[in-house]
Every structure is written in C-alpha cells, then in structure tokens.
Known about the structure:
This protein is an alpha+beta fold. 61% of the residues lie in helices and 15% in strands. Mean pLDDT is 80; it is low at 220-233.
Amino acid sequence: MELRDYFRILRQRGWIILLVAVLTAAAALGVSKLQTPIYKASVKLSVVPARPDWGGSQSTKDLLSNFVINIKTHTMADRVIDQAQLDMSSYDLLEKVEVSAELSNFTIDIAARDPDPSVAMQIVQTMAEIFADDREEWSQRQDKQDRIDVHIVDDARDAPLFKPKMLMNGIAGGILGALIGLLIVYLLEWMEADILRTPQVVERAIDVPVLGSIPASTEHATLSTHRSQRLTR
C-alpha cells in the first residue's frame, strides 16, 4: 500500500479508532470510580552503627534483612493493634504492610495501605515506634562500640492516594481502545481487499493502463433517466 492509501483509510475509517478509544477510556474511568480508594502511608527508619568503619557497616547491612523479618511478624502486628487500638486481626494488618530494606543508605521503609488514610498512618507510625524502642532497649545492654542506633527519620504526616490512578487508567484505556480500533480497521480493510477502488489500484492489479472510467454520479443519472422513461410510458 502507498502512503495515500493510508490517508484514505484514515479519512474513511479514522472515526472508528477515535470512537473505540473514547469508549474504552470512558470505561476505564468508570471502573476506576467504582473502586474503593486506597491510601498509602510510609515511615523510614535509619539504622546507624556506633562504629562507622567497614566492619560496622557490613554487620549493619547483614542485620537489615533480619530487622525486616522481625518487623513483619504476627507478634509485632498484635503489639501494633493493641497499642493503636485497631479493629483488625494480625493477618489483616500484615496484608496491609510492606517492609523493605535499603542497604545502600542503611534505612528500612515501612509502608501500609488502607481505605482510611488515618489508619494507614497510624499503622506505620506505631510499628516504627515500637521497633525503634525495642532496638533502643537492646542497644542499652550492649557496649557502646557494638550499639546500633535505630530511629525514625520522619514521622508519618500524610497518606497520598495509592489507587485508583484516574488519569493513568484513562490514558491506558484510550491507548488500548486505539489499538483495538486499529485492529477493527485492519479487519475491515482485509475483508474488502479484493475491491478495486481507484484507477491506480486497477493499473497495479492488471498491469494495464486505465484509459477511462464511468463516474458513479453519471451512472446514477442514467438509471434515473431510465426510470423516468418507464414511468412516462
């Protein structure tokens, strides 16, 4: 196909692509509005060894993974529920919580997702405080050079909307719709591939120059004349 053939297709069937894109984008936005909003709060813990040498740093990195495991336990979840007076089980709380360690900067990130932003903030703040207090109590029983300081970098101050992402879902729905529209146009063109639409297409198909063609309007006029003559008779 030549470039002008693509332009012809877009002129004739471009509305299909646009319509399907608009419909799928609207559907994605509608589904997003039906979803329950989920908010995410997070707190970052700093883990600093008393000895800032290579050995102390390596030991702290090795302990970070262990700290992550100790934080996300049913024991910790029960303590958070009791202290924050939350109406949920330890299983429910652990499903809302994500704990990860950043070895490069010696930090632990505690995040929680919940339909209520205040509950999400309460979970991460309480969990971080309990763990920091536990580590402080442990450090007081150690030699100063073996202590590892764990403190909250910043308190949980807000819980931004985590999902649904209305704009992103709308854009994704529009892109998907445009692709579906292109597929529909391709199928329609494939079904009509045997139709010779223009003299140029005829010449390419039979490899013979086209000397003339009968316009559709002339044919229509001739048919109308024949019908009028029959009615007159």
